[in-house]
Each structure stands twice: as C-alpha cells, then as structure tokens.
Amino acid sequence: MKQLLTHTLALLLVLALVASEASAQQFSKRKQYNSVGLTLNGMAYFGDITPKPSIPSFRPGATRPNVGLNITRRFAPRISGRASLSYGRITGDDAKAADQTDPEAKYRYNRNMNFRNDILELAATGIFDLIENRNNYIKRPDFVPYVFAGVGVIHHNPKGLDADGNIVALQPLKTEGQSSGYSLTQFVIPFGAGARYKLNKSFDIGIELGFRKTFTDYLDDVSTNYVTDRNQLQSDAAKYFGFDITRGVAGTYSTANQAGGQRGKSNEKDWYSTLGLSVNYILAPRVRNPKFR
C-alpha cells in the first residue's frame, strides 16, 4: 500500500506539472471558474479493530456517515484546486469482527475492544481531470473522471463503551500505560479518484472514492502491548479498557498471562476512507466588458 501511495502521488505531480506548463498560455482567466459542493459519504476505517488489520479488510456494518462542504477553483484545462471541510465517524468492535478460531487473531477475540471516533477534517487537494476542458464552464464535458491528492489535518477523539453502557473518552485514560497521551490533531494525506457528470449549465453530480493515509496508530486507541501490571493504569476506566475488558474465555489466554502481550500492531498506522456522492454548483464568472471611450 505504501508503494501504491508513493506511485500515485508521484504520478499526480508529474501529470500536473506537465499539464500546467502545456496549457498555462492557452487557458485564459475568462475560462476559469469556481464551484461549491456538498458531499454525502460512507466512512470506513482500517486498523487494529477490523476483521483483519489491512486495507482489503472491510466490514460494511461498521460504515458510518460522513458529510462535507468544498469549494473548487478551475485553474487550467485539467487542473483544479479544492478546499474541503468534512465531518464523519469511524467505528470498530472486536466482538463483531474477531474470530476466536483464527490463530493469527485469537488475541483480538480476548481483547474485546470497541471504539468510535468522530473526525473533523480540513483538506487541500489538487485535482487532475483525465478529460480536459479548454472551453468555458458552459461547454465543459458531460462526463469527466479524475484523480486527486493533497494534504489535510484532522481532529479526532476516540471513545469506547464501558461495562455500564457509558461512552468514555479513551485518550485521557492512557490505556497502554503511556507517559503522555497521543495527539488528537494529526496530519493526513488524502488521495483517490472519482468522476463527475454534467447535469446542466450550473450543476454537476459526482461519485468519489478517497483514502486517508494517517500518521497515527491511535484512531482506535490500540497500538502496542498490554501493560505488564494492571495497577500501572491510573483509574478503573483505564483498567477496564486497557486490561479487564478481555473475555478470559477458557481455551485461550486469560488476564493472568496477557500482561505485556500483544494488544495491537504498532508497525501499521491506521487509515480511513470515504465513498459517496457529491453535488456541485458552478459560480458563473463575471464577464467584464471593455469600457467605451
């Protein structure tokens, strides 16, 4: 997946530079325009608390809504820039995903962890159209596939459901015995592909699949190992989520021998993705007529 990300970003950069250089002199400011859009997506997560800790692992039942607003500026026949603000939720639950018969995932069945995380994302992305438009917005193509990549920042706050049915913020608990809590603000790299269709002079509709490469392994509050002694955890809530939530099922390891054992996979960062629809309204540019003297 890292190679795919690297190759995708490199390809987008090369294509953008070539296209910009070739078309800069042929696309006047009179043909540039802005649009505003609304998106409605399904949001999914890939990390320690998915059926398997890898990108191909996907559980539709864990998908949650994501909504967003964006503004896009058309700069060249193939190049646009987009600023977006979105809000959505990711979830995971070992009780619904882990398989106690799988020797590679048995520890996850015992872990019995659950979480939800509401994510606010602000992103700036470059869009490269696979079909160019050298005309104004009125004569734009009816159907345009595209790819995109950029940079973003998120604010997140993982929470879990305790034994009494209460929703508890997990970061302050330091469930893996950390000396300090992980940051709730993180950078992400958004990239993906989509297509838009011209409804009429002023409206486009579209479909888009996007991935977010993150630089944290704590979207789900799970990353490394259990503490060696449950008394290292500073509160009852921390002990519950960090140690005592384990099933302790006969035939698998129990709380007595999980101390210091694997709780997550710290060598793999968490990801999330969005898939959904958008509606975009084109803000017709003002045409300035020359003044007569």
UniProtKB/TrEMBL annotation:
- Gene3D superfamilies xrefs: 2.40.160.20
User: DUF6089 domain: which residues?
Assistant: 27-224
Report which residue ranges the record marks as coiled coil.
none
The UniProt entry, under InterPro entries, shows: DUF6089 (IPR045743), OMP/PagP_B-barrel (IPR011250)
Pfam families registered for this protein in UniProt: DUF6089
Q: What does UniProt give as the signal peptide span?
A: 1-24
Give the keywords, sorted. Signal
Question: Know the name of this protein?
Answer: DUF6089 domain-containing protein
